[in-house]
Amino acid sequence: MNDPLSEVIALLQPRAVFSRRISGAGRWGVAYSAFGHPSFCAVLEGRCRLAVDGQRALTLEAGDFVLLPATPGFTMSGFEAVRPVRFDPKVTSAHMGEVRHGTRGGHPDVRPRAVCARRQ
Hints:
Blueprint: H1 4-12, E1 14-25, E2 29-32, E3 39-52, E4 58-61, E5 65-68, E6 74-77, E7 85-87, E8 99-102, E9 110-119
Parallel strand pairs: 1-8, 2-7
Antiparallel strand pairs: 1-9, 2-6, 3-4, 3-5, 3-6, 3-9
């Protein structure tokens, strides 16, 4: 027997476009352009803010999972006011390692894993 989340993901028939592991510390923020295809994010450790365009911001914590069936624009950030760096998920980067936002040294405040997909 499948769980409801697995059934929703199966109905979307996603195929990964890119997977990116990011981390953030101190003052940081990344604004993603609307993608229009499914995407999801799992917070591996720490906490951050997620503000989906037109919606109230949410706090995400370690263990949280977010599924966006038709990804609108959104911003992920720390909790300090900052002008977010713009990112277009349709333009992929050759960078394969973890991307660090905000303070470069030390332990990150958050480490989410983001995956953008498109339907097959």
